[in-house]
């Protein structure tokens, strides 16, 4: 299930353009529009889950799959010397887009922020 006005749901549905780096039936990965590092990917579930807080036991496998996918995609996109995973949750967590997403950051330092 996607939400009509959610920006990442719109990307999932193909209504907004992006480079689809990886996708399967439940996960989409695309570059962050405002990269904080030479490699900056966003991994999203295709179904709308607003926050990590809102995820439940039914998302356990999905979240595991996203984490296990990150090292391969980071490496393939050029982060060959390590990477960082970030999930911002809620206002004090600095979350701006309320569709659960995993940031994958890597590439040669220095990075812009984080
Ligand atoms: P967060 O603070 O964790 O909610 O980060 C949201 C990220 O989403 C932020 O780094 C910028 C990125 N972003 C926002 N809108 C778009 C968009 O339309 N396309 C892409 N590719 N990234 C976006």
Summarize the structure in words.
The chain has 114 residues and is an alpha+beta fold. The protein has a 5-stranded antiparallel beta sheet with strand order 1-2-3-5-4, covered by helices on one side. The chain is 20% helix and 20% strand. The chain has one domain (7-106): 2-Layer Sandwich (HIT family, subunit A), CATH 3.30.428. It is globular. The protein has helices at residues 7-12, 60-76; strands spanning 22-23, 27-31, 39-45, 83-86, 102-106. It starts with 6 loop residues before the first helix and ends in an 8-residue tail after the last strand. It is built from 2 helices and 5 strands; from the N terminus they run αβββαββ. Bound molecules: 2'-deoxyguanosine-5'-monophosphate. The site of 2'-deoxyguanosine-5'-monophosphate (DGP) has 14 residues, from strand 2.
List the helices and strands and how they pair.
Layout: H1 7-12, E1 22-23, E2 27-31, E3 39-45, H2 60-76, E4 83-86, E5 102-106
Bound molecules: 2'-deoxyguanosine-5'-monophosphate.
In summary, what is this structure?
With 114 residues, the protein is α+β, with helices and mostly antiparallel strands.
Distinctive features:
HIT family, subunit A; 2 helices; 20% helix; binds 2'-deoxyguanosine-5'-monophosphate
Q: State the domain count.
A: 1
Order of helices and strands: HEEEHEE
List bound small molecules.
Answer: 2'-deoxyguanosine-5'-monophosphate
Strand content: 15-25%
What is the number of beta strands?
Answer: 5
Task: Summarize the main sheet.
Answer: 5 strands, antiparallel
Structural class, from secondary structure content?
Answer: alpha+beta
Biggest sheet: strand arrangement = 1-2-3-5-4
According to CATH, the fold-level topology is HIT family, subunit A
Helix content: 10-25%
**Overall geometry:** globular
| CATH architectural category | 2-Layer Sandwich
CATH class: Alpha Beta
What is the mean predicted local confidence, pLDDT?
Answer: 97
């Amino acid at each position: 299930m996607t939400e009509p006005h959610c920006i990442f749901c719109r990307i999932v549905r193909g209504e907004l353009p992006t480079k689809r780096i990886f996708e399967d039936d439940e996960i989409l990965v695309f570059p962050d529009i405002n990269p904080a590092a030479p490699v900056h990917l966003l991994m999203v579930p295709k179904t709308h889950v607003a926050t990590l807080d809102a995820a439940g036991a039914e998302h356990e496998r999905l979240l595991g799959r996203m984490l296990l996918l990150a090292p391969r995609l980071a490496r393939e996109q050029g982060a060959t010397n390590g990477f960082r995973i970030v999930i911002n949750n809620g206002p004090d967590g600095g979350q701006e887009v309320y569709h659960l997403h995993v940031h994958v950051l890597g590439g040669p330092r220095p990075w812009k922020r984080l």
